[in-house]
Each structure stands twice: as C-alpha cells, then as structure tokens.
Specification:
It is a single chain. Helix content is 38%, strand content 19%. It is α/β, with parallel strands linked by helices. It folds into two domains: 5-185, Rossmann fold; 192-263, rRNA adenine dimethylase, C-terminal domain (Helicase, Ruva Protein, domain 3, Orthogonal Bundle), CATH 1.10.8. Helix 2 (42-48) links the parallel strand 2 and strand 3 (53-58). Helix 1 (15-24) packs across helix 2 and helix 8 crosses helix 11. It binds S-adenosylmethionine. Residues 7-12, 36-40, 42-43, 57-60, 63, 83-85, 102, 104, 107 line the site of S-adenosylmethionine. This is Ribosomal RNA small subunit methyltransferase A. It comes from anaerobic digester metagenome.
Length: 264
C-alpha cells in the first residue's frame, strides 16, 4: 500500500527505534497501553513483548485490515477502527493506562491536548512528534519556544525531552527530525474545575505574544481597565510582563482571579 501523507504516515522501519521507544515508555508486565496510529505494527510488536493489554486506534481502512490479520492470534491486543479525535479519550484511558504513539504529525498537538484533559490523566504519555513541536512542549519559561501549548500542557504534565530520531529511520522519510518525549503527570496539577478560565487567560495572553499582559489581557471577555488592575492585584502579577515570562502557576493564579472577577 502507498503511504498516505494526509494521515501523517511515516512508518518506522528501524526495529531498534521501536524497541528504544518501548523501553523509554517504561511499559512493563501488568500495564495497559493505548497506542494511537499503530500503522504497520512496528511499535505495537515491540510493546507486546511486555504489555499485558494494548488498545490501538487506527483510522486507515487498509491498515486496520492488515493489522487484524497480522495480530489475529494476539488476545492482548484490541484494535479500534476510527479517528482518535472522534473518540472520547476517557473511554480509552482508565487509571494507570500508559499512552505510547508515533503520532501523525498533522494531529499531534490536538491529540496531546486532548490527553491532558482526561481526568485522571494517563500514567505516562510517550509520543514521537516533530522535533519543533517537542521543543515547544518542553520549553522552559522565557524561552523563545515557550508558547500557549507549553503552558496548557504544563498545568498537567512535566516534560522529559527524551531523544531525537532522524528521518532515515522511517519510510517514507519525513523532511524533519522527530523527537520522542515523555510526559508525566504532576503531583499537584491544575484542578479540572480551573481549566476553562486558565485556558482563556493563556490563549488570550499568547494571542499577542510581543505585547505586555496589560494590553493583551484587555481582550478577555468581561475585563475592563478597572478589571485589569483587579486581576493584577488578585493574582499578584506584574502586568508589564510578556506572556513568555510567566510560569504555569502564575497563569493558574490569573485564571483563578479572572474567574473570581467575572463571577462576582
Ligand atoms: N505506529 C506506526 C509506526 O511507528 O510505524 C505508524 C505511525 S504513523 C506516523 C501514524 C499512524 O497514525 C498511521 O498509521 C496513520 O494511518 C494513523 N492515523 C492518522 N490519523 C489518525 C487518526 N486521526 N486516528 C487514528 N489513527 C490515525
């Protein structure tokens, strides 16, 4: 079959890399794994050497049929035919589930943001993404790559930047390097009840990356100039700062203050 670029199909051809990802994922006997986009089963095969159960979601019709045949005598593998973005992640993830995937580039960030919304979150998320996306996800405060994506994920996960995988390990070869990263849930994540206001504040701040918060946060629905100084006081944030200068905890304070202001 011809690989379909529209489905981000770059298949791992180096079994050593599949083994390395499986080892880095920390999956062991007794674990349940969610794999997104099993493709031709390179990573699935490596994970089956240790995992007790794998649920694998594949969108491609041809590959789904191929996988069914390839793993027909493997009772530990449940294949799901569908678009992962159409599925309710919380039905695929139970407490303790580890997510492992070589993600299709075109949907990688959307999938990871969905995974961050599951409560409780997966025990670990080990994913291969474009190197540039990995750099955005793992960027420290103040870094040029520190972005809304970094902050939204930081409220839930700690990021281990893992390792780089070059184009030659795939068929067809992608034009860019990839990186395998590991996301581990924080001990004290942002509570789900605070997520909505947090998201609003983060997205509004980064919508105008070069502006000071005192300018960009005026774009928040319900925030007047007076509201802005209340926000600064309640959250104890210097509004002369720019979005990349705030930690996720500071955004959490802004989110709580914002909620307080618009509900009072
Ligand atoms: N895991 C395989 C490997 O490492 O060789 C394949 C990885 S390939 C980068 C991405 C896989 O995700 C492909 O098999 C593709 O068909 C599948 N895929 C693409 N979009 C998807 C979606 N929305 N839902 C589920 N699977 C998808």
């Amino acid at each position: 079959m011809r690989p379909k670029p529209s489905l981000g199909q770059n298949f791992l051809k180096n079994p050593g890399i599949a083994e390395k990802i499986a080892a880095f994922s920390g999956v062991e006997q007794g674990d349940t794994v969610l794999e997104i986009g099993p493709g031709k089963g390179a990573l699935t095969g490596a994970l089956l050497k240790v995992a007790s159960r794998i649920v694998a979601v594949e969108k491609d019709d041809e590959l789904f049929e191929l996988l069914k045949k390839q793993f027909s005598d493997e009772p530990r593998l449940t294949l799901v035919h569908g678009d992962v973005l159409d599925l309710d992640m919380s039905t695929l993830i139970s407490p303790g589930t580890k997510v492992v995937a070589n993600l299709p580039y075109n949907i990688a960030t959307r999938v990871i943001l969905r995974l961050a919304e599951v409560s409780p979150p997966p025990a670990t998320v080990v994913v291969m993404v474009q190197k540039e996306v990995a750099e955005r996800i793992c960027a420290p405060v103040g870094h040029s790559e520190y972005s809304a994506l970094t902050v939204l994920l930081s409220g839930v996960f700690l990021c281990d930047p893992g390792f780089v995988v070059g184009p030659k390990n795939f068929f067809p070869e992608p034009k860019v390097d990839s990186r395998v990263i590991r996301l581990v849930p924080r001990q004290n994540p942002l509570p789900p009840s605070e997520r909505e206001a947090y998201q609003r504040v983060v997205l509004c701040s980064f919508a105008q990356r070069r502006k000071m918060l005192r300018n960009s946060l005026l774009g928040l629905p319900g925030i007047t100039k007076q509201g802005l100084s209340d926000l600064a006081r309640l959250a104890d944030i210097d509004m002369q700062k720019r979005p990349q200068d705030l930690s996720w905890e500071e955004y959490a304070r802004l989110g709580r203050a914002y909620r307080q202001i618009i509900t009072s």
